[in-house]
UniProtKB/TrEMBL annotation:
Keywords: Metal-binding. CDD domains: VOC_BsCatE_like_C. GO terms for molecular function: lactoylglutathione lyase activity; metal ion binding. SUPFAM superfamilies: Glyoxalase/Bleomycin resistance protein/Dihydroxybiphenyl dioxygenase (SSF54593). It comes from the Bacteria. This is Glyoxalase. Pfam families: Ble-like_N, Glyoxalase. Residues 10-127 form the VOC domain. Coiled coil: none annotated. The keyword Metal-binding applies.
Length: 282
């Protein structure tokens, strides 16, 4: 089953604020292989397959450096189609000596962690087959273990990295929030179910029994404030619903619970802005 097509509800696009558009564009194009889909004076819409937008980078007027100890983006996660593609990415980072922040085997996936020039967190990962995942009742079994690097790199022998594969998608997003319980209420209203917990400080939610479409944590501190609107970080991200009816029902639920909305834009309890969309082709 695909966890990023109908009938699942999933994350599809992230809009970032950066300090230097040219420097940021160079990173996403030259290091990761993104292509420009649309461009204006202060922002660029990026794609990997030439048609579907995955990422927007924007340099707002009066941009401020990334603020610490706030809510907002922890990382966005790019899902490559197979293990060979992840191996090619890792070999590429080794070849150009780009610093990684981590490399983990999560049982359901294998992941590489890094940051862009502004410190915006990025995960690049591949999923194991869902038939290999383990569930304990309604909770997915995940862990954070070391990747077998030599074994992974063996997949890339003789392969050349020419950019992230065109079938790479936005697999999930992980957010800093102020309150786990309140966040669970909000994302539950949008239709996401809790599938994994790490004590009282982290929660993972999904639809269609994916290991997680959204991660939530209070690692920047319970009650952390939202960042200033023009500071480096995430401006908003997009959630795609199966159809207009599902989106309207979700919007009605969050409005009935008293959460802020404007059109099809909603703001979670920690100040993270979300665009609710319906994509006709899945």
């Amino acid at each position: 089953m695909s966890f990023h097509k109908k009938p699942a509800t999933y994350v599809s696009h992230v809009h970032l604020l950066v300090q230097d558009l040219i420097k940021s564009l160079s990173f996403y194009q030259d290091i990761l292989g993104f292509k420009t889909l649309e461009r204006s004076e202060n922002q660029v819409l990026l794609t990997l397959d030439g048609k579907n937008p995955l990422l927007t980078i924007e340099q707002p007027e009066g941009v401020l450096p990334r603020q610490q100890r706030t809510t907002g983006l922890y990382h966005f996660a790019l899902l490559v189609p197979n293990r060979k593609e992840l191996a090619k990415v890792l070999q590429h980072f080794i070849d150009i000596r780009y610093p990684l922040q981590g490399a983990s085997d999560h049982k359901v996936s294998e992941a590489l962690y890094l940051a862009d020039p502004d410190g915006n967190g990025i995960e690049i990962y591949r999923d194991r087959k869902d038939t290999e995942w383990q569930w304990n009742s309604d909770q997915i079994v995940m862990a954070t273990e070391a990747i077998d690097v030599p074994d992974l790199l063996s997949e890339a022998v003789g392969e050349e990295f020419t950019g992230l594969h065109s079938e790479t998608i936005m697999g999930h997003i992980h957010l800093h929030v102020a309150d786990i319980s309140r966040s669970q209420e909000f994302y539950g209203a949008l239709g996401f179910e809790a599938v994994s917990r790490y004590g009282s400080q982290a929660l993972f939610v999904s639809t269609a029994r994916y290991h997680h479409h959204i991660g939530l944590n209070t690692w920047n501190g319970a009650g952390a404030p939202a960042p200033k609107p023009n500071s480096v970080g995430m401006k908003y991200y997009t959630i795609v619903f199966a159809d207009a009816k599902a989106r309207s029902e979700a919007l009605n639920r969050v409005e009935e619970m008293g959460f802020k909305s404007e059109g099809y834009n909603v703001t979670d309890p920690s100040g993270n802005v979300i665009k609710l969309e319906v994509r006709q082709n899945g």
